[in-house]
User: Fold this.
Amino acid sequence: QKEVEQNSGPLSVPEGAIASLNCTYSDRGSQSFFWYRQYSGKSPELIMSIYSNGDKEDGRFTAQLNKASQYVSLLIRDSQPSDSATYLCAVINQAGTALIFGKGTTLSVSS
Amino acid sequence: SQTIHQWPATLVQPVGSPLSLECTVEGTSNPNLYWYRQAAGRGLQLLFYSVGIGQISSEVPQNLSASRPQDRQFILSSKKLLLSDSGFYLCAWSFLAGTGTYNEQFFGPGTRLTVL
Assistant:
């Protein structure tokens, strides 16, 4: 069974700080990786996708991928209270048909 | 731009009753379509996916079925609901493999189902 693991949190950071969210996956053959943000009671929203080793930056978000270590992370710079949500890490299965999700990390940003 | 709709937004049903949830996508053709369920305390689990009209694949054995009668319409059904069917049901779409941004999936607003 392919798995995606995340710390459930909650991760608490003060406003303006950097939030670091981590994810590990078990399928060494995985090629596509995603971060979704899910506000309470709402559906997941795609915020980052990454396919190659290294960093990918989009605004205040940076995704980092290390395939050798089977590790994906998401950094949120200048965290805002509006970033308070659950962040889901997802990995595409080898058939390319389904996303395998972690259970999510809850982030709380205090003002 | 693409838009995905789901209805109803919330549903309360008795055990043993039937179920029909609908999902439609606008602004794209030949999308891949997916049904996921998010149960309390559990992660998102893929239930069904479809790569075309009438083509349905099931990921887990269960009390549910899916159909795709039109290119951009995906329906989730059950003949008799169980208590364990309660959860947040999410429809998602992606571009057909080889077009657009491969593998990114975009979710609809979801249907929250409570079975009593």
